[in-house]
């Protein structure tokens, strides 16, 4: 396992994150998963306040070794569905959600506190100032945001820069060979702000593992009959590349995402799945294999990205000597 710095901070995070969303109890299997992940060098565990018993499970499993992990959790989701103020990104819910998460996780600080989803009803200024207060109080070390438009994140980090508040160091998005729309605005924005990107859904609900392409495949998170031609084409290309490289399709799909500079979040239900997924850490995909994977399912960045790329070297816009310019 290799490591990167979280955003523009000095925090070292492993290239693969462990997603704890589905863990309902600290079973022997869950403990094996955590042990295997740690033995492989993984150090980031990602959960959320609205993932059922997950925070409590993580807190129990990490007893005695909490400080060796980068503990990440999220807030936004409702703590009490009968109370409107028990949800959202406003200060009241942030304060109460954070205290609840600290109790469940059996810790006095969160390494990475995510805003779970953009709340249209709360000014981003309120959210950023409240997050900064949590950082200044020592209850949170770094902050990130999940599932939000690029313009919201850009405004938030610009406000933080101008006002001396803590900026978002991380961005969490859905990303896979089958779902590349974040390449239009969100990934370029993250690069511009120096943010780390965590990606969920890198196996596209198991489609890219190839499990549904097999004859007589059983339904799991999806029904085989629900797969589109595009889904099957992506899975088939992934399976073909995997066979040629002597690895699994899941490893190919995860390695593809890593090649794009993101941290895949591994949400596995058993240790055997995790062992397979961890194999992606040392997998270098040949350029030709990447081209085959990406050509199997078409993706267009669309306007303005395609248009800007088209005119980037246009003498009519930038002058006759534009070809002599070494850009960023």
UniProtKB/TrEMBL annotation:
Family annotation (Pfam families): Aldo_ket_red
Domain NADP-dependent oxidoreductase: 16-296
InterPro entries the UniProt entry points to: AKR, AKR_Detox_Biosynth, NAD(P)_OxRdtase_dom_sf, NADP_OxRdtase_dom
Keyword Oxidoreductase part of the UniProt annotation: yes
Gene Ontology terms for molecular function: oxidoreductase activity
GO CC annotations on file: cytosol
Alphabetically ordered keywords of this record: Oxidoreductase
Stored PANTHER family: NAD(P)-LINKED OXIDOREDUCTASE SUPERFAMILY PROTEIN, NADH-SPECIFIC METHYLGLYOXAL REDUCTASE-RELATED
Name of protein: Aldo/keto reductase
Organism in which the protein naturally occurs: Nonomuraea zeae
């Amino acid at each position: 396992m290799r490591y990167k710095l979280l955003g523009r901070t000095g925090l070292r995070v492993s290239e693969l994150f462990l997603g704890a969303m589905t863990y309902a109890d600290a079973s022997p299997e869950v403990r094996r998963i955590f042990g295997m992940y740690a033995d492989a060098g993984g150090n980031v565990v990602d959960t959320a306040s609205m993932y059922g018993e997950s925070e409590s499970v993580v807190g129990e499993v990490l007893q005695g070794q909490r400080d060796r992990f980068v503990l990440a959790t999220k807030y936004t989701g409702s703590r009490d569905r009968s109370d409107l103020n028990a949800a959202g990104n406003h200060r009241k819910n942030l304060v109460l959600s954070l205290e609840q998460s600290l109790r469940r996780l059996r810790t006095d600080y969160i390494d990475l506190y995510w805003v779970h989803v953009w709340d249209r009803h709360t000014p981003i200024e309120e959210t950023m100032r409240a997050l900064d207060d949590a950082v200044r109080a020592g209850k949170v070390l770094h902050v990130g945001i999940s599932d939000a438009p690029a313009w919201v994140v850009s405004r938030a980090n610009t406000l933080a820069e101008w006002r001396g508040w803590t900026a978002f160091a991380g961005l969490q998005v859905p990303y896979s060979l089958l779902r590349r729309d974040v390449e239009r605005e969100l990934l370029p924005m993250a690069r511009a702000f120096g943010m780390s990107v965590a990606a969920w859904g890198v196996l596209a609900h198991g489609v890219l593992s190839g499990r549904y392409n097999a004859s007589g495949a059983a339904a799991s998170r999806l029904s085989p009959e629900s797969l589109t031609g595009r889904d099957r084409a992506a899975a088939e290309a992934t399976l073909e590349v995997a066979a040629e490289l002597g690895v699994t399709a899941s490893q190919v799909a995860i390695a593809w995402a890593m090649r794009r500079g993101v941290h895949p979040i591994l949400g596995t239900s058993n240790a055997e799945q995790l062992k397979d997924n961890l194999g992606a850490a040392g997998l270098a995909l040949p350029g030709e294999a990447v081209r085959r994977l990406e050509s199997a399912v078409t993706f267009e960045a669309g306007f303005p990205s395609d248009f800007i790329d088209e005119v980037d070297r246009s003498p009519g816009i930038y002058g006759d000597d534009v070809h002599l310019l070494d850009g960023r």
